[in-house]
Inverse folding.
């Protein structure tokens, strides 16, 4: 084990222990938000892989999460399997869908790929998740209800066991995030980044474009689906609304806003996406200087849109990328104060 | 047979709307290199301004045509202002960036506009449509015995007129020539003294106007709420792709074809979502059959 890998494993363990303790004192609503934050963070992490590493655009990540959620919901509600099996099934189905979505991506890139994935997100949102022709998959208008669910023999369903589900989610997230950080410098990661920089050059150097692009789409969909597969467990049921087109667009916007090339930015974005709307609806009303005001959920999406525009004009590397480079600058400045050799960037 | 003819009329009106929306997308994409995902949202917001004037602020004693005229005028003025604002506040600053970055910025515009509208006008479906022509104006074609509403005719006429009007504007006026020059090469155009900034501003204004017109015209045909008009974008993009994101006549033709393709299956399949699948299949077919690299030509 190299020292770098040890450092990363240690970082993931510290992150897990700290984040696992944080929601303990929260009420049920915020505990739900904490679990939801990890689910959304999985969706954003899938974009770190697909857009940050491989340079492919996708506007249908929430669709992958939704497919994972519906598959898991169907497995638990109709077959009453252990929830672990349901999650695995959700991940597998999402992976398969990702590979299928990746097929047109073999010929497309940039904005044309964005159009196609937007179309896919819309078809799933308006047709497959809502039409009665697909009731066998979506469980009808009521959706699948998760009554009693166990994982490793531990009860996980309902709000009473929310923390158990959160811990499992968080552990999985830290594991996948660690794997993604390590992927960056691995052989597959180098091939992914070669595809991002220039598909033509990558193909010339012997990278199998078909295999690695499909793999990237499949893996990305599987990551989004893994988060989504926990949704029925955390929320108690599945409905189309959390996985509609605008969630996909929010994923893309928040991933870019936080810094699409950085794994920790996904966790930051997930927390942003889950907590801010709830805080707004809970505390965003009252009176100010005699006038009653109410800040609703809609303000969150307005803020996301405006922040995205401002960020793309001023800080192209995202919030996390900007913070990172500032910390690096400060660090080298500290080094300079100590009389050490000043590195010229 | 009568059903078939009736569906053809519906399909053609729908196609006219798609053409109108797609024309704005093509116009903006050609001259500024921005693929505008917020096109539907921009049209939606302007339509709600018109709706507010028509149902909220118009006086009950005004004649119907005056309310309609004022409402549409307010919507269009707002649309032009919004187009100009977006150009000056946002897209002027990212002119040299990659097309993908500009497209992602329009997603930000979409999210902000969509939530702002649902904040102001609430996210429900009670909104009454705006009829450009009175609803009771209906003609019956003697042969096929099909009723044709004046609103359908208005949409088809406006779509065709705008397509040919915009085409003529781009081809025969000096400003149109300037716009085409910028779309071919902004650098060379600016060296020849073409005011690139002004061309960008006018393109955004025109594109936004066309988006507003399309969205106002569509209100009698769909459940008119904040999301349905925003989601019109996918049909408009499909029509624009048929025209290769460049050709105005092919875009209009594509819009009509898509309108018919989306309407005929509803004879047999009662599903709100199915037309979206048709649009996706059309998009995939066009992108796979045509050489996708051809689409990057206009994007500088």
């Amino acid at each position: 084990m190299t020292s770098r890998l040890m450092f990363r494993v240690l970082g993931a363990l510290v992150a897990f222990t700290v984040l696992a303790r944080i929601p303990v004192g929260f009420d049920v609503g915020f505990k739900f938000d904490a679990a939801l934050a990890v689910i959304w963070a999985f969706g954003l992490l899938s974009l770190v892989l697909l857009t940050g590493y491989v340079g492919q655009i996708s506007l249908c990540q929430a669709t992958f999460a939704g497919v994972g959620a519906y598959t898991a919901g169907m497995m638990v509600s109709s077959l009453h399997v252990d929830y672990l099996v349901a999650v695995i099934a959700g991940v597998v189905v999402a992976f398969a869908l990702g590979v299928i979505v990746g097929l047109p991506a073999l010929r497309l890139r940039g904005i044309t790929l964005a159009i196609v994935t937007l179309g896919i997100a819309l078809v799933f949102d308006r047709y497959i998740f809502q039409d009665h022709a697909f009731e066998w998959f979506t469980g009808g208008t009521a959706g699948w209800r998760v009554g009693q669910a166990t994982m490793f023999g531990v009860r996980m369903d309902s709000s009473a066991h929310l923390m158990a589900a959160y811990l499992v989610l968080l552990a999985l997230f830290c594991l996948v995030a660690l794997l993604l950080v390590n992927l960056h410098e691995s052989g597959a990661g180098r091939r992914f980044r070669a595809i991002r920089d220039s598909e033509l050059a990558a193909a010339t150097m012997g990278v199998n474009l078909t295999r690695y692009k499909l793999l990237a789409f499949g893996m990305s969909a599987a990551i989004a689906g893994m988060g989504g597969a926990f949704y029925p467990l955390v929320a108690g049921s599945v409905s189309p609304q959390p996985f509609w087109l605008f969630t996909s667009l929010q994923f893309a916007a928040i991933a870019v806003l936080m810094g699409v090339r950085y794994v920790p930015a996904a966790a930051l974005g997930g927390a942003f996406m889950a907590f801010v709307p709830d805080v707004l609806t809970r505390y965003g009303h009252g009176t100010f200087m005699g006038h009653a005001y109410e800040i609703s959920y809609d303000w969150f999406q307005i803020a996301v849109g405006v922040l995205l525009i401002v960020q793309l004009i001023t800080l192209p590397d995202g919030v996390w990328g900007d913070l990172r480079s500032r910390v690096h600058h400060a660090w080298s400045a500290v080094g300079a104060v100590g009389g050490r050799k000043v590195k010229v960037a | 047979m009568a059903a078939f003819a009736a569906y053809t009329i519906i399909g053609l009106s729908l196609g006219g709307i798609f053409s109108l929306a797609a024309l704005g997308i093509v116009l903006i994409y050609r001259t500024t290199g921005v693929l505008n995902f917020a096109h539907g949202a921009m049209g939606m917001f302007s339509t709600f301004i018109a709706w507010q004037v028509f149902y909220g602020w118009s006086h009950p004693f005004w004649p119907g045509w005056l309310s309609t005229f004022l409402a549409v005028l307010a919507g269009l003025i707002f649309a032009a202002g919004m187009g100009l604002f977006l150009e000056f506040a946002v897209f002027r600053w990212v002119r040299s960036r990659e097309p993908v970055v500009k497209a992602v910025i329009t997603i930000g515009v979409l999210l902000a506009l969509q939530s702002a509208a649902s904040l102001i006008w609430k996210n429900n479906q009670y909104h009454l449509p705006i009829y450009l022509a009175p609803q009771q104006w209906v003609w019956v074609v003697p042969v096929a015995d099909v009723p044709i509403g004046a609103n359908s005719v208005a949409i088809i006429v406006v779509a065709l007129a705008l397509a040919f009007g915009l085409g003529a504007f781009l081809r025969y006026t000096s400003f149109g020539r300037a716009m085409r020059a910028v779309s071919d090469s902004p650098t060379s155009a600016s060296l020849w003294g073409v005011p690139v900034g002004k061309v960008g501003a006018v393109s955004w204004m025109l594109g936004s106007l066309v988006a507003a017109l399309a969205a106002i015209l569509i209100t009698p045909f769909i459940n008119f709420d904040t999301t349905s008009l925003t989601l019109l974008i996918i049909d408009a993009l499909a029509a624009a792709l048929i025209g290769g994101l460049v050709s105005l006549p092919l875009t209009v033709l594509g819009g009509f074809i898509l309108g018919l393709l989306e309407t005929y299956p509803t004879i047999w399949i009662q599903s709100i979502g199915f037309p979206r699948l048709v649009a996706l299949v059309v998009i995939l077919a066009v992108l796979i059959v045509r050489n996708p690299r051809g689409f990057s030509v206009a994007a500088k």
DSSP finds 15 helices and four strands in chain A.
